[in-house]
Specification:
Blueprint (H helix, E strand, L loop, with lengths): L19 E7 L11 H14 L6 E7 L3 H8 L8 E5 L5 H10 L5 E5 L3 E3 L3 H11 L3 E5 L12 H8 L4 E6 L4 H10 L11 E7 L2 E5 L5 E5 L20 H12 L3 E5 L4 E3 L37 H18 L3
Parallel strand pairs: 1-2, 1-4, 2-3, 6-11
Antiparallel strand pairs: 4-10, 5-12, 6-10, 7-8, 8-9, 9-11
Helix pairs in contact: 5-8
Length: 325
């Protein structure tokens, strides 16, 4: 039986603390072999997120069947630092853990992050500036990536072809060292010349790089419910899962895929290097209060897959004809 009425029924609606949430998925089954240093890497990831947070975002960590040491580490953080922790008893697959958690949040901007990302100060500010300026941006990565011009970017290239964005190839020498650290982390050859040119778009004095990787990116929430497949991936990791559930849906929904003009994060891999421990140094950032900005609401109309593929190839060919070096 029930006595009285639930007092929460007469209370006002819940107010969001901010409009940005970071979702990190971690899978460390043991601390041996490939995963020997992974807990230390994960510690740096979370500590850099906590230290660089000025109150503009909340943090969700999804423990995807990791060992006991991961749970103990997460339990050590206060609810103010990491306010949501999801524990899976076994690994349900990276993409299903990531997308499942992201679809359950309420914030408008959602950062999807691997557990080996090292965040620099002001990474979220730089990311939000791109969203604020480029209204059709669907995703923004804080890792500037020079080689993403044609990866999931047909919507960006179309904006350039229609003259809605200024486009240029230009050197960004201040990104040279960070770019090589990223290339090393994914086993690509380092670049030798800091004057190599990047594909850059600009609008209202703000610049961004076309394209990004998918180790970390911030996307608009609506993409998760418009063009991301509804069926589970059922893939442990890799394969075509990240392209199908993260990369392609951004482009298919007609949103732009960008990264910040300068680099604000690093991909660490599974080994600690001495320079990494210096990045999240110093005292934690003071919470400066929440400063929301309105996101442009776009009614998403996704075309069929075949129509999307045809459009993508046509845009790519036209862009190469007019702009490709």
């Amino acid at each position: 039986m029930r006595i009285g009425s639930n007092p929460h029924k007469v209370q006002k609606k819940i107010a969001l603390e901010n409009n940005h949430r970071v979702v990190v998925v971690v899978f460390i089954p043991q601390l041996t072999g490939y995963y020997q240093k992974s807990l230390d890497v994960f510690k740096l990831c979370i500590e850099s997120l906590v230290r660089t947070n000025t109150g503009e975002y909340s943090i969700t960590v999804v423990n995807n069947g990791s060992c006991r040491e991961v749970k103990d580490l997460l339990d050590a953080y206060s609810s103010k630092e990491v306010d949501t922790i999801i524990h899976h008893a076994r690994n349900i697959g990276k993409i299903d853990a990531l997308v499942g958690a992201a679809r359950g949040v309420r914030e408008e901007l959602i950062t999807l992050s691997d557990a080996d990302i090292l965040y620099k100060k002001n990474w979220d500010k730089a990311t939000r500036e791109v969203f604020r300026t480029f209204k059709k941006a669907g995703s923004v990565s804080p890792i500037s990536f020079r080689h993403g011009l044609f990866y999931g970017t047909s919507s960006v290239l179309r904006e350039v072809l229609f003259g809605r964005l200024e486009f240029s190839y230009e050197p960004i020498p201040e990104n040279f060292e960070d770019q090589n650290k990223y290339l090393s982390s994914i086993n690509w050859n380092n670049e030798k010349d800091d004057q190599v040119e990047w594909p850059v778009v600009s609008l209202k004095g703000v610049k961004a790089v076309i394209g990004s990787g998918h180790q970390v990116l911030t996307l608009k929430r609506e993409i998760l419910f418009s063009s991301v497949p509804e069926a589970p991936s059922l893939t442990l990791v890799g394969g075509n899962s990240e392209n199908k559930y993260i990369d392609e849906p951004i482009d298919k929904a007609g949103f732009m895929r960008l990264s910040t003009y300068n680099n604000y994060a690093y991909h660490m891999g599974n080994e600690i290097e001495s320079w990494m421990e210096k990045i999240p140094s110093g005292e934690k950032e003071d919470f400066a209060g929440y400063h929301p900005f309105p996101l442009e609401k776009k009614k998403v109309k996704t075309s069929g897959h075949r129509a999307f593929i045809i459009r993508k190839h046509l845009v790519k060919r036209l862009f190469k004809f007019f702009y490709h070096q």
